[in-house]
Amino acid sequence: MVAPGTVSQRIDHLLAHVLDEAGGTTSPDAETTWLEILTTWFGPDALELNSISSSQFAGWIQETLAEIDELLEAQLQELLHASPLQKLESSWRGLAYLIENVAQYRQIEVHALDVSWKELARDAQSTIVFDHTRIFKHIYESEFGSPGGCPFGLLVGDFEISHLPQQSVDTLSLVRQLTGTAAAAFAPLILGVTPQMFGADDIPSLERGINLRQTFSQKEYLDWQSWCASPDARFLGLAMPRFLIRPPYSRATTPGSEFLFTEHCSKPADYLWCNAAFALAAVVARSYGETGWFDDFLGPVQDDERRGVLSNLPWLTHHSDPDWPLPPIEWVVPDPTAQELAESGFTCLRHCKYTPDVMVQSAPNISAMTQHRSSIAMQTELLDIQLYHILAVSRFAHYIKRIARDLIGSALSEDDVQASIHTWLGAYTCADPNPTPAERRKQPLKDAFVQVHKSESHPGTYLCRVEIQPHDLHQRLAVKFQLKSASHQPLSLGS
Fold first, then answer.
1. Best exposed site among 153, 172, 373, 431 by fewest CB in 10 Å?
2. Domain edges within the chain
3. Cβ neighbourhood burial of 188 (10 Å; 0-12, 13-18, 19+)
């Protein structure tokens, strides 16, 4: 029988004794110290070892170890399910997941920037215009806007937003600043969204059903609707729902561990969920790594069952049937709702039935939200434009800006610059109305047009307009920018 009191009380008493001895000026007698420790832990009977059998003493040890395990498990349960630690672990595991998915592709680099939502807000509030912010200087000026710089292809923000203010920050104002930077750098930005974006308090509220057309027609969404009609909105992708990034700890998930800890998840919030932006970024990066181009990464398709599918997620099963996988996403979105979300500009992770896999079938940009107050013609135009179209056009913009900048620096006339860019674009243009997938990757454009002329209002400045039409898009996307020999202005995307 152990000494009275809880394990934690005995540990506190023991630690106090050890610390007191450690702080003394003389070294404690080892034999006396251990006798005191035994007495503290097991009670006065521990001194009469001759009257205690080895099995009885072993029982004491086992009982004490079991109590310690229970104490540690309770503390770990509380620690692992605390919101701040969950957020920290989710962010690091999300970044690790993205890196693991692109590690085999040498042409892909991942840069991480540790910055909080409030820090971004302070940066945005420090100036009136977005191109004076520190984040703009880091994303645009240091890379795309500088000769020899390496432009970013995709920006992933580990933030989950709604149309409402978040952490005392005006969400729309900050998103407007961030997408301005993304558009200038021709690097689309992906963020996650919370249930509050759809007028719901939590996931169970979403599961009961939502009416997006009715929700987005409310007055509180008018500012968002208005901004979504701007050209910069095409550079923002919003993804949901969150996906499972780590299974609960158990003997199966931590084999060989000396501490056999079983994590108990009694409610959905106890599981470790990750921002859907990481999943979408992994699909995009994998497609680029395999093809060398921002091709259509949506799937799956008949010829490529892996396209758009994430199959390396944690495997959870029903207790009653270990062979029946549970969906590794926070919300299994019904088909009609998924279609409505896509038409509203949201990327929705879908569960592949009877498997532990997740797929991306549609990746629009948030400008599609304007369909709820726009004409049928505008709806069709916006729905045609997927994230991979913006990525592809952005990649051309990266090259054209560099080519044109070098040509302008060589003192060629605007006609010569225009002809050179037109010739370069021609190598990536295929007039065949039905190109093969291989031909589409080598010549991803159906049509292209370029125009270069001097600015009448700004001497020494050239204005360049490039119109690019990918094969499966019904209209051209226009790339417009200014070129100067001394300074380089942000680019813009129009139609």
1. 431
2. 7-80, 83-385, 397-494
3. buried
